[in-house]
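Lab meeting prep.
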Amino acid sequence: MGTLYLVRHGQASFGSDDYDRLSEMGQRQSVQLGRYWAERGLVFDAVITGTLRRHQQTWAGIAEGAGLSYEPLAWAGLNEYDSEAVIRAIHPHPLQKPRSAAEAPELYRHHFRLLRDGLAQWMAGTVSPQGMPSYTEFVRGVTGALDHVRANHHGQNVLLVSSGGPISTAVGHVLGLSPEATIELNLRIRNSAVTEFQFNPKRHTLLSYNTLPHLDRAEFRDWATYA
């Protein structure tokens, strides 16, 4: 049996002009995860990341915290869907920006209501967000990474750094979940959260989902984020 550790990237820059970079909090989350694993003597035989900047920055933070120097395998099939394209497919008008801190929570909720609806329609094949693969192709990119791990790393510890969409898709695939259940998993996964699979050459088995063991101390109580 091998163990696959799937990590969602640290907090990115939601609401900024460039989401695809870690915030200062995201950097701290990533480094702390590496420290946590180093304290427990966990080492990896292989590392796989998506090709997005936030994936690579998260791995760099983990490597810094753990004192690791692996060269990761870049796997484009682990890249996140384009949430803005998903929303535009069902809501072509620009979303309102908050004019005050009081407006932000409701606009945030509105954004994710649209995202949930857009994801459901993309997964059903009723919309085709511009510049994105079909949902079938997206799933194939994720399951291809799982197949690679099973075929090449039996009995090893493998780290995979990606995003909420691919990780929830992997869990949904392994458990045989409906698209609706996969969406709910996706929208609840936390930044730098760890999901674990055991695997053999034939299949993966879910051990844990969306855990934050590295932040389970009072000093980190404000470090749990979602965006």
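Slide two material, second protein:
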Amino acid sequence: MIKKITSLLLLTFIVNIVFGQQANTLIKSVSEKFSQVKNFKSNVNIDFDIPSINMEKMNGKVFYKAPNKFKVKLSGVAFLPKQNPFELYNLLRDTSAYVAVSNGAEDVSGIRTQVVSVLPIKEQDVVLLKCWINPVSNCIEKSQITTKSSGTITSTYFYAANLNYPLPYKINFSIDLTKFKIPKMIAVDINSKKKSNSNASGRTTGSITFNMSKYEINKGVKEDNF
């Protein structure tokens, strides 16, 4: 009986090591691919689906500079996810800052992905990061970031075929509205322009979609854009 228990524990230990190695290999491939992006700017068109608030589409520019500078500039007023959608690459870059665990395979938008959970070792705002990774393109097809300050934000990424850089043409953010706070001044500005609808459905989630185009990659981005 003791031998069976010992063998089972040993098998579990070996499986965990193998799954951990697989997860780390996937993350390394993703990080190395994204490290090719030193900076970029692009056009962005933003769609909002937030209960109780009517907002028209907004156009603007997106700016990024490695390792974690990110800015959206719009012609109007908007509330956006606090998280930089590319911040997860900065977290994944430091392999000593987390433990990675493989969680099997799942389909995302018709693509077979490998699911990896990342648990930060040090105390920080991010509690858990899950990544759905395409092992062929080494792109993240979907991510789910759980934070203390903003709840859970799930992002789904859409890429063009034969892409040279892992930059999506569309990102859809699903937002936990119980944690997503709208600043008072922004709420006043929105209400003054267009009357809000009541959230009769009682929905607790909303979405914001970035449609990105005309990327200019690694051509330099000025610091005053941030």
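Talking points for slide two:
The first strand starts at residue 39 and ends at 49.
The beta strands are 39-49, 58-65, 69-74, 98-108, 111-120, 126-134, 139-147, 151-158, 170-176, 205-217.
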